[in-house]
Design goal:
Number of domains: 2
Shape: elongated
Order of helices and strands: HHHHHHHHHEHEHEHEHEHH
Largest sheet: 5 strands, parallel
CATH superfamily of the largest domain: Glucose-6-phosphate isomerase like protein, domain 1
Strand order of the largest sheet: 2-1-3-4-5
Number of strands: 5
CATH topology of the largest domain: Rossmann fold
Oligomer: single chain
Length: 295
């Protein structure tokens, strides 16, 4: 079979078509992928090989048996299949159905968020948190990247870090707007990346360019650690529940707030001076407003 990327193919159907001709090890992989399509779309070949106690080369051969030119090409189709199945509306509909079947929506949602936060306390690497805090403290200029719902997290970091005296460059757009902002990036800058299950071209470009420039990268993510983790200096885990569900930003926002408070606790003197200056400027603005009202 000639090797192709099978764009638009159904992985489950490809596996079914080839299943009888697969080796014993390949059938183990096939069964794992069929039972864990959502999770598999965001795991590296090495991670799946480790779980199944197989070699990474076996994963590569399996992908080629299905007609793909490489394992990453097969994973890209897995991700495309996932996006087709799990749209924004299906995630929301599924979450609403679950909440309505189990009583009060507010109560159920709050219980779920508490559960995710409890898991975060166990999963988040405190050493990684400490490293991220020190990197934020030691860099004067910080690029903060996030698209879609993550824009609210970018806005939060922009406001807080500016009040800490940092120069912040928000990266909230794709296309030309992103490129213009990247042009001023330097090796002495810090890049804080907020990214979840979607590997979009803007994210890949931003990470690759940051690496080329030599900037330090902190990544806050849920499912992309095994795929993009080698491109960041520090990885912060922010699990938001199963990939196919409607997600909130409670866990990643809590991680960000913890980082900001940790920075503030270590830089109290300087930050208090900045906040006093902020209050002074606000008082001055109120005086100008009163003067205008008198005119």
């Amino acid at each position: 079979m000639g090797k192709t990327d099978h764009q638009g193919s159904d992985i489950a159907q490809l596996i079914s078509d080839q299943y009888n001709s697969l080796t014993k090890s390949e059938k183990i992989i096939a069964n794992f992928l069929r039972k864990n399509q959502e999770e598999s779309a965001f795991l590296s070949a090495g991670e799946i090989a480790r779980r199944l106690e197989l070699s990474e080369a076996t994963l590569v051969r399996f992908a080629r048996t299905l007609g793909f030119c490489s394992y990453p090409a097969m994973r890209a189709v897995l991700q495309d299949n996932f996006r087709q199945r799990v749209t924004h509306s299906t995630r929301l509909r599924g979450r609403l159905d679950e909440m309505q079947q189990n009583g009060d929506i507010f109560e159920r949602l709050t219980a779920t968020e508490i559960d995710y936060l409890t898991q975060a306390m166990e999963l988040i690497d405190r050493n990684a948190m400490d490293k991220a805090v020190e990197l934020i403290r030691s860099h004067e200029k910080i690029f903060v990247y996030g698209l879609g719902p993550s824009i609210s997290l970018v806005d939060l970091m922009e406001i807080r870090l500016q009040r800490f005296g940092k120069e912040v460059v928000p990266l909230k757009y794709s296309g030309r707007e992103l490129i213009d902002s990247l042009l001023v990036m330097k090796p002495t800058d810090l890049v804080f990346v907020i990214c979840f299950f979607d590997q979009n071209p803007s994210l890949r470009l931003m990470l690759e360019y940051s690496r080329q420039v030599g900037s330090t990268i902190i990544m806050l993510t849920d499912t992309l650690e095994t795929i993009l983790g080698d491109k960041a200096d520090v990885i912060l885990s922010a699990r938001r529940g199963p990939v196919g569900e409607f997600h909130s930003l409670v866990v990643p926002m809590t991680v960000i707030n913890a980082l900001l408070l940790s920075v503030a606790s270590k830089e109290q003197e300087n930050i208090m001076l900045m906040l006093d200056r902020l209050d002074s400027l606000r008082d001055q603005l109120q005086e100008y407003n009163r003067d205008d009202d008198l005119l």
